[in-house]
Amino acid sequence: xxxTKKILNLSAIAVFIALTSCGGSSDADTNELNVVDTVxxxxxxxxxQLFESPAVESVLPSPLQVASIFKKSGLSYNSDAPxxxxxxxxxxxxxxxxxxxxxxxxxxxxxxxxxxxxxxRKYLMTITDLAEKIxxxxxxxxxxxxxxxxxxxxxxxxxxxxxxxIHERTETYMDENDTRFKEAIHFAGxxxxxxxxxxxxxxxxxxxxxxxxxxxxxxxxxxxxxxxLEDPRNDGMDIDWLLTEMKSIQDTFNGxxxxxxxxNNPDADVLVLTSKEYxxxxxxxxxxxxxxxxx
Amino acid sequence: xxRTLTILGIxxxxxxxxxxxxxLTEFKENIASQKTEAKxxxxxxxxxxxxxxxxxxxxxxxxxxVEIYLFNNTDYRFSFNGKSLxxxxxxxxxDKGKTASDRTLLKEFTGLQGQNLLVESSELNTTYLEKTGHxxxxxxxxxxxxxxxxxxxxxxxxxxxxxxxxxxxxxxxN
Lengths: 295, 174
What we know:
By secondary structure, chain A is mostly helical. Chain A has 13 helices and 1 strand. Chain A has one domain (10-293). Chain A has helices at 2-19, 26-50, 63-72, 94-113, 117-133, 144-151, 156-176, 183-204, 209-218, 222-229, 240-254, 257-263, 275-293, and one strand spanning 56-59. Chain A is globular. By secondary structure, chain B is an alpha+beta fold. Helix content of chain B is 29%, strand content 35%.
């Protein structure tokens, strides 16, 4: 019954679109048919695109899980490390807004997991503003998110549940609008920030070998972020510089002798880079993060 | 007369368009509710992400692959929902991608059509250790959907009865 109503409503809209431009001449008739043909072929095209998922895809971890992995490895909170939320106003291109939506999502997770709820609140406000700019305002349209954050500000578990809900709403929004391919751009920002926070902590506490291992472990995701960014539907986003930087990090990492040994030993459980390799990787991560967060 | 025929033509095309759009909307609404069901099946595991794999059944077999990362000895639960499958498929989980000739099959199951089934990373790790003898844990797994060949399928212009999707939701133990 609901379906029949939908069909009638949609066909009425389509007929209305066609008839409102009715002029009576044969040229006009041809134009009307062309308009409807185009509308129909767009719907068909949309349908065909949707039902042809790529042959190989990946599931990228949520910013909260990445932050949780680092936290469990002993990463400490450094108030100077996260990106300045005041910079958000200066991101005027869609690419920068999307990348820094990811950056601030990672920062929010970092703050919440380190019992810095008040700082986390600033990042929630910032990503809410950025979401509006990139057309995802519906993810945050219910004011209840901020209200719930304030109500549970002293309850870390509740705030973490709220973060999971934000992640889920973002995914649902992208699925419903067939824009899931853009996830790679958000994730590129979140991944870079997560890695930066790990590198920052490791550089200040070199004895934290486990944090270093987690930095190396997270490198495995990079290949699929690059694949996601290379989706032709992201053309026109001016992401060449980002791809160049990310590929350079990937190539450098793949060239490390520790990485080669690790991947050729199926019994190896943890990848530990040499001090020189960590420094080299850390420098590349910091450079990329600077470019992403620059106004 | 010509004008009447034109209007009738427009109306016919409009109905076709509306039917296509309504089918798409209905399919997506179903997927959204199946995702909710798959997420609920995670139980105490925390939602980490999802992947909806869409495909058309064809006269030949197809494979779609999803790569999943397993980090830092974390336990994961994978919730597969096959309630948008018009035909059953086979699900195979490997330690390496489909281009690797030396990959190990960790789990295989059918009967996903109309069901929500769960798989845990702990059982995949156990099988991995048993089959390979390696002492290292799995760092990632590759889920292959083996999409059955349907001899009567319309390869070029699939009908809604030949379109399907699998909802995969994953969660981790906190």
